[in-house]
Design a protein that fits this description.
Number of helices: 18
Shape: elongated
Largest sheet: 5 strands, antiparallel
Low-confidence stretches: none
CATH class of the largest domain: Alpha Beta
Protein name: Phosphotransferase
Oligomer: single chain
CATH superfamily of the largest domain: Aminoglycoside phosphotransferase (APH), C-terminal lobe
Pfam family, one: APH
Strand order of the largest sheet: 1-2-3-5-4
Length: 545
Amino acid sequence: MGNSLPPEATGNLRFLVVEVESQVSNLGAYFKTPSASLARRVADRGGYADNLQLRIQNSCASELARGTVTESGQLALHSLAVIAAQLERISACCRDVLEQLAELECVENVYPMAFASMLGKVRRGVRDVESAVLGRDTQLALAVGRIDQKLERAYARLRNDLTVRLKKGGATDELVQAMFAAYTVKQMGTALLRASESVISANLGQAINFERFRTLQAVTDDLPGVESLRVAKVAETRSGSAIAGLADSRADGDDYLAIYKDGQRAKLKEEKQGVKSWHAIFPGLAPRILSYKKRGESASLLIEHLPGLTFDKLLLNESDTAVNDGLRQLGKTLRTVWSETRTERGVNAAFMRQLERRLPDVYKIHPEFDLGTSRICGLEVPGFRDLVQRAGRRERKLGAPFSVYIHGDFNVDNIIFDPLERRINFIDLHRSRYMDYVQDVSVFMVSNYRLQILDTPLRQRLMGASLDLYRMAARFAGKQGDSTFEWRLALGLARSFATSTRFILDKSMARRMLLRSRYLLELALGVDRGAEAEFRIPLKEIFVD
């Protein structure tokens, strides 16, 4: 981190560390021997820390404005700005503590040595921040971060002692003010924790918090023969999971040893179970789980890195030959999976129930979509929610005649094609289950449509990929005697078009997607009951812009 920072910024960091360390030291001395002069040394110097922080942030902003900073350099500059802000926050906390102590007649009555001990830990942490930054010392940054836990424990003990005295009828005002002061000192630990996280993030090359780093350390212990790792951000899911590629720092190139994923414990547990199920039901499609660790409500997975391209990258960047090969392999793989996992148990995907559950999220992003029944020249136009509810009532009686094992979240970025091995793999398998195969088909088709690509040839390629998968699925449905495939697909597409708008901020595109959803629902509802097998979707009209 240190080598990529402008000298002016690192110079001001040195001054800021010295200034804040001095203020913390003076505050600690005040608890031991209270005096007006010590109080003034803290209270009168707030502007110094604030000005130094501002200089550091201006230096970082100027460097970024040049437009020549690498991605890792940008993260280092951002991290330095955060560190400066956290140091200034500690300075502000020092002044806050003094204000809270001003009401006390005698500091000696509120455990001054406990306060002094806590502030001694803060002082050491402030001093070590600079060394961790300039020396790119992750272990020292971890030590700084652990001060937060030490202060948390010290605060808990001090709070308990003060509470006991309050219950015994001690000087209420003094004890309450002392409790506020203790909490403010504890907040200095939080500031040190955030500063340490910034150092670690800059050293790793991606944003990471303290707990995530500790979990990363735990799972990477399961990678044999690797002394040091290089971490590269791969993705950030909408649910908050972070995905990173782990590579041996001594190796050249971008070949990952494994993929690290962390997030909510429940979701990652589902993914682990989904991968396990795929290995039992259809081996070879899912990656191997190398490690799984849990910590409270969070968890992490270390997953086998699969070679190849995600399907969106294949469609957007590769040749027509590679795309056609990938689509053939995808169709072949799906036919095999569907045939080999087919069960005679009928199933209902309940597309409309899924859609109705997500409509509130859609309306939060696009409140203009939330329209009730209206009239145009005397003709009643039902509201979108009314259409969904009517379609839902019909859907309950028209499930799939059989079930297969599906991916469950079959977006194009969850499918990997290896052009060398001509092999398809699936990732992000937390929703896999036995279900109507129409769900995977509809999700794949709409995930192509919603890619915000304006280039006409690429747009045509994406629409072609959707139609290609549809044709394969329609042939499969015909061979299996699935007569209501198209009618259910209309509802599946309507569901995916509408729910996907919550990820689209482009009003024009979101409106096109909602109108397609509405059109499909109106077409499906326009079919006479019992005649669903005769229904055909006008796909060329739907999948064209």
